[in-house]
Design a protein that fits this description.
It contains 19 helices and 15 strands. By secondary structure, the protein is of the alpha/beta class. The relative contact order is 0.08. A hairpin with an 8-residue loop joins strand 4 and strand 5. The strands form two sheets. The protein has an eight-stranded mixed sheet, with helices on both faces. The protein has a seven-stranded mixed sheet with strand order 9-15-12-11-10-13-14, sandwiched between helices.
């Protein structure tokens, strides 16, 4: 049978628009139970659905896969809806990686999944669709959905029920023709599929509600969705610790056997329930063979562009998120921006810099600077950032008209530095260097010599007697008082990311990247006090 399926695929390459080839593939895959090949054929047919026969072949192949493949289920479920009103198809390019991870949970390739995404991009809706598929394909193993309030759990319950009952909009009964709703209870927020059971197919219950003895998820899935209610709760360590105690004592024990755990929502704090659980899995050797995955989809990507600019205007474009960030920055609350939109929990009392700490200017530099220099914290890529401010010194004031902040390969960052040197007439560049990175400065110098640009380039190793955090803390008052940055709206992509990295730096806890504030501390080390000359009468 596998040989036959391969022959059909070969035929498909010769005649990609022949619907009869896909029907032959459908029949062969049915006999072989080969849902992977059926899915492959469906995605091929999806590219050529202009004719009615091809569209029908596409639908039938999807339907064959749908009970087994979540992606196929989501594509098939809404086929009766206009494409612009569908939930999944316009968002598939972004959400497919999440769908694949959910498939891994169900296929027992993962034990636990952590998902962080900005508000209103579809994470809870995707969980509703996922759970409608889960209880349709496996109604016997109970599942539990929990959130911080009854209002959220009620909406989830109604959402799953709508997919099952609204046959005009959703094709759930096509996918699971033998399944039926045996019992629903709006007060208890429970759904039973196929038969009434002591522990229903799905129970939705707020984390503060009754969990012990009332619900179970043995060999099912437990979804913990936004267990922290709001910023007020997130800023109270006592309330967070109390919330974790409830989660650890009441929610997690609802699962046993092969129960899978799924944590989604805003990462408000490193000690929120998801953070504490993540730390346990990462650092306790008893979970060494435990299979878990963390997916963080931030509002803006590394190019400062929206990750959720969906078709049909159902998402959020880059300008929307940049404006949201500007609002948080103006309100001196970058911690909330980072938590809600970038998936980076920040402990507010640990941040060293805030937007209100700094001085700003409109982009027009004064004339006749005393010196123009640049400090560079270099890197070769691989996740680490090259960071450095261009500095114009006027007496005690240091204006910063441009920066480099890029985690690309050195073949990209070194020419960027050379370009900044040429554009801003920089006369002195200092690189922080050790033996492994000494060549970085040499290669930039070679690029400048090719342009016949001669400047003073120096290298200086970091002090091994002082940690990076201590150096930044030591220079923090001078950075706040003397450095003047471009105001919001005048910054390019790298400048915006640079400032975001500065605002997210914290003394308590871990810093994923601290390159931007470290480069500012380096720049302050390069300051040379301006000397004055005065004529006076000899005193003797």
């Amino acid at each position: 049978m596998n040989t036959l399926i391969q022959k059909i695929f070969s035929k498909q390459k010769e005649t990609p628009n022949d619907a009869s080839v896909y029907i032959d593939l459908l029949d062969a895959c049915k006999l072989a139970g080969d849902y992977e090949s059926a899915k492959k054929g469906a995605l091929m047919a999806r590219k050529n659905v202009d004719s009615i026969p091809m569209y029908e072949a596409y639908r039938k192949l999807l339907l064959l896969c749908a009970p087994h493949d979540l992606d196929a289920y989501l594509l098939y479920l809404e086929q009766n809806r206009p494409v612009e009103t569908r939930f999944y198809e316009p968002r598939r390019k972004v959400l497919k990686q999440v769908v694949d991870a959910l498939q891994g949970l169900v296929d027992d390739k993962l034990d636990e999944l952590f998902l962080s995404m900005p508000p209103r991009v579809g994470k809870t809706s995707l969980m509703i669709f996922f759970m409608s598929w889960k209880i349709g394909r496996d109604s016997e193993h109970p599942n539990l959905y929990s959130s911080y309030s009854d209002r959220i759990t009620k909406a989830f319950y109604n959402g799953v029920l709508e997919i099952i009952n609204d046959t005009d909009t959703y094709l759930w009964h096509d996918v699971f023709p033998e399944s039926k709703t045996a019992r629903t209870n709006a007060d208890e927020e429970t759904i039973d599929i196929d038969r009434r059971k002591h522990y229903p197919s799905l129970t939705c219950r707020a984390i503060e509600g009754t969990l012990n003895g009332a619900c179970d998820a043995q060999d099912g899935v437990i979804i913990a969705d936004d267990l922290v209610a709001d910023i007020e709760e997130a800023m109270s360590k006592d309330r967070l610790i109390s919330k974790w105690s409830r989660v650890d004592n009441n929610l997690i024990p609802r699962g046993k056997g092969k129960t899978k755990y799924l944590w989604i929502g805003t990462r408000w704090s490193v000690i929120d329930p998801a953070g504490i659980r993540m730390d346990l899995l990462a650092n306790d050797e008893r979970f060494a063979d435990y299979r878990y995955k963390v997916i963080n989809l931030p509002a803006l990507d590394s190019n400062d562009e929206s990750n959720f600019d969906y078709p049909f205007n159902v998402g959020f474009d880059t300008l929307y998120y940049q404006r949201r960030r500007a609002s948080f920055e103006r309100n001196n609350d970058m911690a909330s921006w980072l938590a809600q939109y970038m998936g980076q929990p920040i402990e507010r009392e640990g941040t060293l810099f805030t937007p209100y700490d700094f001085r700003y200017y409109n982009g027009e530099l004064p004339e006749n600077p005393d010196r123009i220099f640049m400090a560079v914290d270099p890197a070769f890529g691989g996740g680490d950032f090259v960071a450095g401010p261009v500095c114009y010194q006027y007496g005690d004031d240091i204006y910063v008209p441009a920066v480099i902040y890029d985690n690309s390969d050195k073949r990209i960052t070194q020419p960027q530095i050379a370009s900044l040197i040429e554009r801003y007439n920089i006369t002195w560049v200092q690189f922080e260097a050790n033996k492994s990175i000494q060549s970085f400065a040499t290669e930039v110098d070679n690029l400048l010599k090719e342009k016949d640009i001669k400047i003073n380039i120096t290298t200086k190793p970091a002090k091994n007697t002082m940690s990076k955090e201590t150096r930044i803390l030591d220079k923090a008052p001078e950075i706040r008082e003397r450095m003047i940055f471009l105001e919001d709206g005048k910054r390019d992509r790298q400048y915006s990311l640079f400032m975001q990295n500065v605002f997210s730096f914290k003394l308590l806890g871990k810093n994923k990247h601290d390159d931007a504030p470290d480069s500012l501390a380096m720049a302050m080390d390069m300051i040379v006090k301006k000397h004055s000359v005065e004529i006076f009468r000899r005193p003797f």
